[in-house]
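step 4 of 6: structure.
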Amino acid sequence: MRFAFTDDQLAFRDAVRDLLARGCPPEVVRAAWPEGADDHGARKGEGARAEAGRVTKVWDDLAEMGVLGIATSEAVGGLGLGELDWVLLAEETGYAALPHPFVDTALVAAPLAEAAGDPHGVLAELVAGTRTAAVLPLGSTLVPHGDAVTYLLTLDTRPTSDGAWVARRVQAGLAVGDDEHHRRHLADVLDGGRHVTQLGAWQSDAGFAEGPVVERAFDRGALAVAAQLVGLGRRMLDLTVAYVAERRQFGRPIGSQQAVKHHLADAAKGLRFAAPLVYGAAWSLATDDPDASRAVSAAKSLASDAARATARAALQCHGAIGYTVEYDLHLYLKRAEALARAWGDAAWHRGRVATALGI
Amino acid sequence: MDLTWSDEEQDFRAEARAWLGANLADWRARHDDRILSGDTEAGFAQHLDWERTLFRDRWAVVSWPAEHGGRDASRWEWLIFEEEYYRAGGPQRVTQNGIFLLAPTVFEFGTPEQQAHILPRMAAAEDLWCQGWSEPNAGSDLASLTCRATRDDERGGWVLDGQKTWTTRGAFCTHLFGLFRTEPGSERHRGLSYLLVPLDLDGVTVRGFGRLDGDEGFAEVFFDGAFLPDDAIPGGVVLGEVGRGWSVAMATTSSERGLTLRSPGRFTATADRLVDLYRSRAARPGGVDPALRDRVARGWIEAEAYRLQTLQTVTDDAEGRPAGAASSFVKLWWSELDVDLHETALDLLGPDAELDSPWSKGWQFALSGPIYAGTNEIQRNIAAERVLGLPRT
């Protein structure tokens, strides 16, 4: 029994953390948001923006570090590592609110393509970061980074008696709002940093992979997003702890008030107990534990709830300044809310746990 | 990361499971399968019989050294024992306040003579210890306590005056460990000493009174010039140094808040029973509100989170990364989880929940969790200040 990461795993985490601290500060996250007014006139991306080149640079830097090949074998140019090696990296990409499809491309699509024998000949490009992917689980039609991805998959259970998981490739998709002159129209969404398009019409193949290998791909995605949610929660907590220690009202820091302390203690508590479920689920997947799907769903549900509760506490403790687009908090708050519902929301995953428990 | 148990640990689990299965059945049969609450006089006697059975086969204090009645079990084996104990439906440990709260302090601060006398008698349930900290006007603000111990060099001992209260099972115990003001005129955390007091001294009056559930689980203890001789306990009646009682006492608070007092096995067993309860209620005509399925799953997940968080904490501790003030998060987690699990069970029972049952009893007990061992508001302050680093109030 040992519930801790290896020195190598922590060193890799630290390297990615440093890269993202330098390459993906809030102004880079905001620079990924569309500029100007959206279809409904909202100016969601206002505030301090880095130059656009820095947004693409952080993806290139991750590719150069080998991070995009972490879940694929060395035979195809990857690092051949497992869930325990990448779960902390996913957490860091959450902490940074990385505006790139790291989970979909590197942790779901690439290893699934490899397991299926690379039927579409995209693996090398995915590992190199020159092609990005989006994965639509559970019937979702919202495509993250839909204006850029060129490999689009769906993961569903077949609505027949066998209920088997099946992966399909989507082609010839049209986004809601597309016309003959403009394709891949961005939907107006909560988190502009995700560049979501909404699939309106599409064709897909009959399925290029099915069964446990596809369920495993789904579990990797849900686990990685759970880790991102823990990271996002930690970011919001750090921002808020720093703010309430500085901000003074009634002649003293607001963080010295019990009401504020109790909000943040509860938020921190939720994250401290969600994280071990996430790490434990990584171990379960990495070791082919028969209860791995249950472990992943437990982790995703608690991480979703903990991140959402932390977002509420963080906003409340900031007061009005947190309720602006120019302040950074919303970048993390909105990502947390989007990811809390992506890859199955908390209630969906609790249902999956209940089924696994036989009720 | 390796979340598997070694062969030795699995053997330990099998041995514990077999022993508990056989001996719990024997114990219940000895009492005509009518086990009363350990917080009543008659039930306490039944539970002492159980404690002595545990001790006889060296299961009372598995993590202690063999010389004091234990098995030198590792932290991991202790967790396994706790899991098996609650899975088997083992009863409340009426000796727990000695074993889990006083004993760690005796191991850390006691002289060899004190240890040799106190620990084996505690493990054997011969001496029964209760905690004497709270007073009528010193609860969350424990440092405002006013119970006095005045030095009497002529007779060689201390003269005790004042009142303790909320003393769990005080009416059934033989000894009290408590904080007393030994420096006249001292204030707050200074001038306190950690004293070990037999309750049969002249001038000590113990009055039991009912908790929320009506059991005589509480007591108040009055000291009216009671004389505590220095040799009332071999090795002396002061634990640690005179005047250093506060820091000595803090050693037990982290045990109480952390996992020692309330290990995950207790809550994972309750969560598993909740799943069983859901299954049996759902199978009845009319079934149950499907929304309760979500709450059952949530409770099970939160108990599992406590289990895994504990594996992480024990690993960290073993590798030199102690949890420290973060034990306050743990107390918040298990105390709120316990209420949630029992509330969900009562909702599954519907109108029948009003009837006395283990779930109703457990719910009433769970309600005390956010209050004892430092209220959850105090824990939030500690976590916010000492873990998150927020400014002191």
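step 5 of 6: annotate
 - Residues 258-387 of chain B form a domain with the Butyryl-CoA Dehydrogenase, subunit A; domain 3 fold (CATH 1.20.140.10).
 - Chain B touches chain A through 50 residues (CB under 8 Å).
step 6 of 6: archive
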